Prior knowledge:
With 615 residues, the chain is an alpha+beta fold. The protein has three domains: 11-187, Rossmann fold (3-Layer(aba) Sandwich); 213-276, N-(1-d-carboxylethyl)-l-norvaline Dehydrogenase, domain 2 (Orthogonal Bundle), CATH 1.10.1040; 299-614, 6 Propeller (Neuraminidase).
Amino acid sequence: xxxxxxxxxxxxxxxxxxxxxxxxxxxxxxxxxxxxxxxxxxxxxxxxxxxxxxxxxxxxxxxxxxxxxxxxxxxxxxxxxxxxxxxxxxxxxxxxxxxxxxxxxxxxxxxxxxxxxxxxxxxxxxxxxxxxxxxxxxxxxxxxxxxxxxxxxxxxxxxxxxxxxxxxxxxxxxxxxxxxxxxxxxxxxxxxxxxxxxxxxxxxxxxxxxxxxxxxxxxxxxxxxxxxxxxxxxxxxxxxxxxxxxxxxxxxxxxxxxxxxxxxxxxxxxxxxxxxxxxxxxxxxxxxxxxxxxxxxxxxxxxxxxxxxxxxxxxxxxxxxxxxxxxxxxxxxxxxxxxxxxxxxxxxxxxxxxxxxxxxxxxxxxxxxxxxxxxxxxxxxxxxxxxxxxxxxxxxxxxxxxxxxxxxxxxxxxxxxxxxxxxxxxxxxxxxxxxxxxxxxxxxxxxxxxxxxxxxxxxxxxxxxxxxxxxxxxxxxxxxxxxxxxxxxxxxxxxxxxxxxxxxxxxxxxxxxxxxxxxxxxxxxxxxxxxxxxxxxxxxxxxxxxxxxxxxxxxxxxxxxxxxxxxxxxxxxxxxxxxxxxxxxxxxxxxxxxxxxxxxxxxxxxxxxxxxxxx
Length: 615
Ligand SMILES: *[C@@H]1O[C@H](CO)[C@@H](O)[C@H](O)[C@H]1NC(C)=O
Ligand SMILES: *[C@@H]1O[C@H](CO)[C@@H](O)[C@H](O)[C@H]1NC(C)=O
Ligand SMILES: *[C@@H]1O[C@H](CO)[C@@H](O)[C@H](O)[C@H]1NC(C)=O
Ligand SMILES: *[C@@H]1O[C@H](CO)[C@@H](O)[C@H](O)[C@H]1NC(C)=O
């Protein structure tokens, strides 16, 4: 290494070039478009160039969201010819397929065609950049490095690594440019196959396979310990099943060839799984480390994303208010991935299922009389409007009375609790705490809701012949109350003067949704009030003797630390309660005193109602 390295001249106005518009190449390109650069994607295939451009166009907002406030992206184009693409580049990322000879000749060609101050980066993880320099001169080697991207925009760590010859001054410069894209760059201090994290992760996978091969434990136990220790939504065995055991085998093969390590974990995965076509989630009928699921044993959680944690300023306010979704996730070893069943909903809040259909409410704009109640088949098709705009103000939790075949739902700003048939007919008001048209102060001025009129959560008890609802009071105001009234309106009374209303619990931080275990006589609810008593999952024994644990508070806190917990559903078979929160997380809270376990987390999720079906 001769003279000291200095940054490429005028790099701000020179292009970033990505060679290869594949899965990773187009993502690297999008990162630097978001950072404001002009980016050229060079790919010999026209189809690949077009797909990469379409990817950036459609997904640029997710990359801009990483840059913490940048709203104006750079420009981008697809280019066929290499020489044209790189002639004035300040950095070239090569993301061509992982074939040694192809990568080597790419570097030789870049040495000839790119400017002499251009930084040359490879995305390879199988090859150290030092392995790719067989055909280039000594001086060029000083500006070659590895940049190993995980999977932006979801996984934003980038590991930088020397080729063994890279000028040390390159690293702080390249790190700073990656930070402009909102990425998290780290630099390995020397060359290493597998960089930093992949080596550690490979060791964890390898040791899990050894534990299984030696019969020391099971995938279920390994994953449960992992999740409990690290608060992670998925465990290592689920992740291996998720990426595919053939890929796990391929990576381990590489390490076995490079290092003097035991072949036993590799042979275990080859002989017991890959050879039998048991690759994990991609072979659902054969399974992987986990056996294929038996019908009826998996829990399909259905929950609502109200859409309010989406990056601001990139959608019109109408798109923003109609960005709600019905999502689903399999609670058992699915890798926590959620699928959208229904989208385009106006602030959805409450959800329940019955007899092959989903029922949910859309609040609409909370200050407008524009809520709706909807229903659809479990796969999201055949959407029907049960209560149209104009008939309900701001509908919240809904609950199907399975025996009576009725749908109950609260109307927050409408100051009511409703009940109707499952097709929306015979709709009746069963509780009325005020008239939102003539008593707007009961709705609008949240600061002095010293008496709470707004109805939020609802459920029923057939055993007690009652329904229950919450009036949450002002935010974090410790004015939350839970009420009950009988399923039949007493003779001679109306929804606003019925004499059978009882207070079940009061002075709650901010109680929200309700769930009744009729068999055990226990009422459960979420509370989004102030910690430590709020942001909790609670229970109260309504039938039989009050347990000792409820004596102090008149209720028992089962789980704490929810991020504005809303939806909840009891799973008797697994003795747990699932909870969704507005911080975009779905929790499984054990009723055996165990910790809560995170099933799923959506980076921009904001979740409200939740229910499930067994599949
Ligand atoms: C590098 O990018 C190419 C093209 O997108 C891809 O096929 C390859 O898997 C990537 N390599 C790594 C280690 O991500
Ligand atoms: C945008 O990203 C999503 C998620 O990765 C992907 O499914 C979609 O195909 C992308 N859009 C285009 C046009 O490639
Ligand atoms: C709320 O406070 C304002 C100002 O103090 C008062 O005029 C109004 O009557 C109050 N509303 C209720 C429902 O107490
Ligand atoms: C209410 O009135 C109906 C008919 O008038 C009667 O059959 C019923 O027993 C009454 N219910 C109660 C609780 O009094």
